[in-house]
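Next comes one such specimen:
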Amino acid sequence: MNITVDDRLMKLTKEFRLIDTKKAFVTLGMGTVWAPLKESDKTIGAAFHGPSRFAVDAIVESDYGVTGESIAAELNGIQLYFGSSDLTGPSQPVTEDDLLELGYPSSVSFCESVRTKIDGAPSRNDKRFDIEGDADILIGEDESRKKVMLVVKNNSTVFTHDKKVFVTDDDGKSVFVQGSRISIGDSDGQTLIIDEDRLRGFEVLNRLGPTIARTVSSVMRNIPKITRHIGEQMRATRWHQDFDIYGSYDNVDEFDWPD
């Protein structure tokens, strides 16, 4: 897939919810500048820069209490979005002042920065984003320059942020990895928690293998094949580097999570 950047830049005139599910959302603020991303003249997403934030509810409840956490952060710099959300309604053409405010001397400079972002993304080797159906995909970084990847389709979610990984599917099965802790949950509420020095949830040990297999395979069946490209390329790009695991954002009081 040959991704091109449309140079007809736009600016949001009001806040816009780009991704909105029961487990995650991405919100773009007024003044965000964006450019359509196309393949064979078909719009497949957008690249944007401006006031924006994400939040993911990676909390898993079990008999042992709550594991995981809610993660929220401001996004920084150019972000890549692939999906069907249409930003044109609440938008107007950008002005030179809009671009200067974000540090771009011209629309050409903005588009060049987008192109650089695409080339540096996990699939840069083959520049292919194999997107199917109604999936929404965000690839970018937060204000601390920690890498963010969010893939959602229906109620399936794949989320990576710094050294955190969260995967859940439509049936409520989940896997959450944070540092040395791994939480594996089944749809019936039973959870296996593996820490550095302890193991909880012995009663589900005999189902551990099948649980992991069902969770991962179920999610992968319901998300776009881009995840395979990302998985293959993370090892070959700067995304594989070690990051500080202590700078995560977990204060999401400002976000109104559904019950």
